[in-house]
Specification:
The strands form four sheets. An eight-stranded parallel beta sheet has the order 4-14-13-12-11-10-6-5. It has a three-stranded antiparallel beta sheet with strand order 1-2-3. The chain contains 15 helices and 16 strands. It is globular and about 60 Å long. By secondary structure, it is α/β, with parallel strands linked by helices.
Length: about 400
Amino acid sequence: MERANWGFTPSHQSGRARRGTIQTPHGQIQTPAFIPVGTKAAVKSLLPETVGELGAQAVLANAYHLYLQPGSALIDQAGGVAKFMNWNGPTFTDSGGFQVLSLGAGFKKTLAMDPGEYHSDEVIAPDKLRLAHVDDDGVTFKSHLDGSMHRFTPEISMQVQHQIGADIMMAFDELTTLMNSRDYQEIALERTRKWAERCIAEHQRLTIERVGKPYQALFGVIQGAQYEDLRRKASQDLAEMDFDGFGIGGAIDKSALGEIVSWVTDELPEDKPRHLLGIGEPDDIFNAVESGADTFDCVAPSRNARTSAVFGATGRFNLLVSANKSNFNPIDENCGCYTCANYSRAYLNHLFKSKEIAAATLATIHNLHFTVKLVDRIRESLSDGTYQEYRDDFLARYYPAN
């Protein structure tokens, strides 16, 4: 199958950490790279043009949400998600599996709870009803918007993602949690392996059928929770398949993130990119890079910003605290973003207290700039051999109590 304008070239390596270039039909991504999340074809509170001005190289949209609203067929008619949202660069989509299963179990944001808290494979949030049901063929789920019933199979996920038109898509997988039993993890892993084969077959069929469309790369998603043998097996199984790259998914215990990602990347080919799904805190970013991840996405910069939590050189803090009411300094005097160059903490404190929409916009500008520039500096340090010094200095300042 012809893969026009697609490829990955590693260029610098230090241990598992590496620098490289992903070539897509809509431009290059210099790795490591942080990919902002534009769930519904928009990074919340920002214009797409602003996201680009902040240095983001690509954005990730969500197949589940765009399938429900406005519909993947409409996005296809618009010429794909990049054109639809006026984004001038590469795009990713995840398969929708996370949202189908996490929202279906009543957990809106994460499934990485304390594994000692629950012991049933029917994991449900307290006081919630199960809205998603998994079988060997796919998942039947109820829309969180209007209660209507829908079904995703590997084939439907591929059809939806081809219509959305992202440069990089994720195979449909079964998301498990840290609370599922070992037996169920094994069942889900085998189900995900079979779904991966079906995703490849449907992806190849659609690529031929949709002649004239830019090539869309397909990444296999590796599950296995906290079990080393399952993570390695999943990596080996998917590495033998005709994927363009790999996503590392599932609920991961933060304290073991680096170790788990290392198990996976040890088993994957060097000439294909690896995307770690859903991480964005600075320590997690360093762990991801050192473990061999090339790209990663997270809603943390924009979600934190909407609650007035911002990133500074000496750690995260809240603009709403009383000390900022009369503080006329910027969030970070050495930042250089538009917000820090023009607005004080006192003004931002006022905007948040007044519930002004501009509060989220200005705080998100800062947080996204902070995160993108952090990864830019990591990438540069891998090239010039100063990575460890940069990491140690940054983490000592950002987490001074540790």
